[in-house]
Design goal:
By secondary structure, the chain is mainly α. Helices cover about 95% and strands about 0% of the residues. The protein is rod-shaped. The relative contact order is 0.10.
């Protein structure tokens, strides 16, 4: 139970941190391109 708990916590943490970080710069970038 401890093995899956530690992996699950790091899995979502890493994915969530990388997703919003990469999505944040990409979202405005795409919007600016479309607006122009």
């Amino acid at each position: 139970k401890r093995c899956p708990e530690k992996i699950t916590r790091i899995d979502p943490d890493d994915s969530t941190l990388k997703l919003p970080k990469m999505f944040k710069p990409v979202e405005p970038d795409f919007n600016a391109d479309h607006d122009t």
